[in-house]
């Protein structure tokens, strides 16, 4: 990557080198604009991050190309020599559950399909918590709520029914064998990025923007702000004068929490690849375990919502220990010896993210449009939370990044 010394003056500054900031930067490069990307971390990619363990690329952030058949990252992967795996996701496959009785599994699938049909029918009406649409006393409610903690990072009581209803997903989910994070970071690698450059204030009181960073002040005609909502809402990046409506919109779209633990699995061939099991089906605080993704000798454990928060608070090793307990309860006590933790995440503790992906609070589905609205034709907002229908995904981040870059170009290229 082209780690750039900080330029004091640019036409356009991009704040944040996640999927959105990178997409914006690539669009500005195509247009020949004068710009720099300001990134707090010592790497690019943000919540897209592939690490290598035991010679395997493991995605600690995004892993699935959701709506993969119309996801720009799919075309980018194909054009840049990455390998797309089209094996269907376990949650879309009828026989993917390893431990549930087939008739029970069919019952669960019917219950969750009916729940999402009710969401679809209710999305145009009054906004309220999605939990209101659970069938009273329903056998599968706890598991449907657990699925919400994986999909939204939060339980259904904290999730807007309108927002969930607007999410556009065609159930085509593919993967990048070399890692989604590697794809996104690779796409950003030619960009001029100032790393370890923490932005603290964007002063828009004068004719020129003054962006205060840990490496000095950058003057810019306009800025693309591609930051996670929690970073805007908690004031780590301040605006002068203050932008009350943006802070409120960001707070209405908090990042829910989802964390992963990756295990190496001994004698992997004894378990069928691309299957899944839940730790429990009768409580929300449970993990989802993807067995042998991409046929590899690994298990990916996934936790969301309150459970993920509690495990982060308990400290390092707590999520792996919890996963091992749940897996041995399902697969026998000897299973413990076959598992070696490889990597785990703590996205809430990550100060440059403070969570995993955004969801709208009940009654606040309109906040996405408010957050996405430019200010004074020079502060352009991007990032997954600004997407109307692909929020929470790297796909949505990409689309908002390109849109913000085009809006910035229209202004900077305007005659006079
Ligand atoms: C566990 C997990 C699983 C996921 N699974 C999927 C999936 O399967 N499919 C999918 O599509 N999506 C998934 N996502 C979501 C996806 O990763 C995000 O939606 C997407 O990467 C967000 O991109 P972004 O550019 O909007 O934000 P970010 O990637 O968060 O980028 C923002 C950037 O701003 C930087 N920054 C923060 N503060 C400052 C500051 N003060 N100064 C300068 N820079 C700053 C950050 O370091 C970061 O690089 C997952 C996320 C997680 C955490």
Write up this protein.
This protein is of the alpha/beta class. It has 2 domains: 2-48 and 179-254 and 358-412, FAD/NAD(P)-binding domain (3-Layer(bba) Sandwich), CATH 3.50.50.60; 90-172 and 258-344, Alpha-Beta Complex (Polyamine Oxidase, Chain A, domain 2). Helix content is 31%, strand content 22%. Strands 1, 2, 3, 9, 10, 11, 12, 13 and 21 form a 9-stranded mixed beta sheet that branches. Strands 16-17-18-15-19 form a 5-stranded antiparallel beta sheet. The protein has a 3-stranded antiparallel beta sheet with strand order 6-8-7. The radius of gyration is 21 Å and the shape is globular. The model has no long low-confidence stretch (mean pLDDT 97).
Short structural description:
31% of the residues lie in helices and 22% in strands. It has twelve helices and 21 strands.
Give the SSE layout.
Elements: E1 2-3, E2 9-15, H1 19-30, E3 35-38, E4 50-53, E5 56-59, E6 64-65, H2 72-79, E7 84-85, H3 102-122, H4 141-151, H5 161-166, E8 174-176, H6 180-188, E9 192-194, E10 199-203, E11 209-213, E12 216-225, H7 229-233, E13 238-240, H8 244-252, E14 255-256, E15 258-265, E16 275-278, E17 288-291, E18 298-304, H9 305-314, H10 318-331, E19 339-344, E20 357-358, H11 367-372, E21 379-381, H12 394-412
Parallel strand pairs: 1-9, 2-3, 2-12, 3-9, 10-13, 12-21
Antiparallel strand pairs: 4-5, 6-8, 7-8, 10-11, 11-12, 14-20, 15-18, 15-19, 16-17, 17-18
Helix pairs in contact: 1-6, 1-12
The site of flavin-adenine dinucleotide has 42 residues, from helix 1, strand 15 and helix 12.
